[in-house]
Amino acid sequence: xxxxxxxxxxxxxxxxxxxxxxxxxxxxxxxxxxxxxxxxxxxxxxxxxxxxxxxxxxxxxxxxxxxxxxxxxxxxxxxxxxxxxxxxxxxxxxxxxxxxxxxxxxxxxxxxxxxxxxxxxxxxxxxxxxxxxxxxxxxxxxxxxxxxxxxxxxxxxxxxxxxxxxxxxxxxxxxxxxxxxxxxxxxxxxxxxxxxxxxxxxxxxxxxxxxxxxxxxxxxxxxxxxxxxxxxxxxxxxxxxxxxxxxxxxxxxxxxxxxxxxxxxxxxxxxxxxxxxxxxxxxxxxxxxxxxxxxxxxxxxxxxxxxxxxxxxxxxxxxxxxxxxxxxxxxxxxxxxxxxxxxxxxxxxxxxxxxxxxxxxxxxxxxxxxxxxxxxxxxxxxxxxxxxxxxxxxxxxxxxxxxxxxxxxxxxxxxxxx
Length: 418
Known about the structure:
It is a single chain. By secondary structure, the protein is of the alpha/beta class. It folds into two domains: 42-232, 3-Layer(aba) Sandwich (Rossmann fold); 260-381, Aspartate Aminotransferase, domain 1 (Alpha-Beta Complex). It is 35% helix and 14% strand. The protein has helices at residues 4-35, 42-50, 75-81, 131-134, 154-168, 212-222, 260-269, 297-306, 346-360, 374-379, 383-389, 394-412; strands spanning 58-63, 86-92, 110-111, 118-121, 139-143, 172-175, 187-190, 205-207, 229-232, 289-292, 312-319, 331-338. Strands 3-4-2-1-5-6-9 form a seven-stranded mixed β-sheet, with helices on both faces. β5 (139-143), α5 (154-168) and β6 form a beta-alpha-beta unit. α5 (154-168) crosses α6 (212-222) and α7 packs across α9. The longest helix has 32 residues, at 4-35. The termini are far apart.
């Protein structure tokens, strides 16, 4: 028989374990609740508030693996499962509807295995929906996560869809998503018309500070596409938020954009795609890792840190890419570590790194050839490459792009939603 004191201890222990269990359940509940907090993407707002407007319409959906709600359910599955809506076709951008193609890889039209719907490729022989693709469609929906940088193909897939929708006389609705690198800062040179391509089609800066829905408004009105456009905005997104994606999970918008931090450095380090230096493709940290077999990692890190660029430090690193440039070769280089998202200037940082490697390794560093060179397509002009080759300072280059950037900022304000 237990003594009164033993009984008391058992009661206290039992209550303590129950309290811990309740606390754990409370913590779990709060954690689950937190996962659904933060901004609601346009797909949720569409189904919550506008589904009735879609009744009786045959819908074509332009999307990829990033088109999900906060519970990571695919737009394709959400729309296909609803008896009151009629999803009739899918359209896939670069990397495909399910994200199974590498950068620049031709994407074929096919049948979606999960739904049996036709999938029309917008990154193969055609970059815009054709009249045949749009036959029998009453409304196009567009839901793809952008990354906030001019040189990325998804905004120009959107532009092509807007042009095709205008020609077909059908409306296009954009389901909005956050700008993952923030919606406040703009940076870099504005694209010049002679350098327009599928990685930069309109006169916007490298870092534009706009959501995909805001870009749609700018393209459609400011640059004269003139489609029947409607943007379904997010609920609860603020462009000044320190964590621009809020609690929304990061779904990689392309195979080499694995985490949100990749998008943060990409406006600058993607410049290396126009050079013979590896931008880290074939490593676990693409665009954060930069280098080549001829680079002295320790020396480069020391020289870059001596520049005291805002919000970033450089760590010497060595890596062997599994594919792409210098595949199978040991490379020396640096990894970028962003220490302050607010003060970090990715384009200026990437440009400084290009200039440093050009100046320190004149016999080895190369801009890749082309007409125009791909580096020029990325910067949106020919003068930055020339300025690097002529030994001009970063400050002089930055001063040269500022007037056009200020003009863009004035235009941009007319199309902001948040």
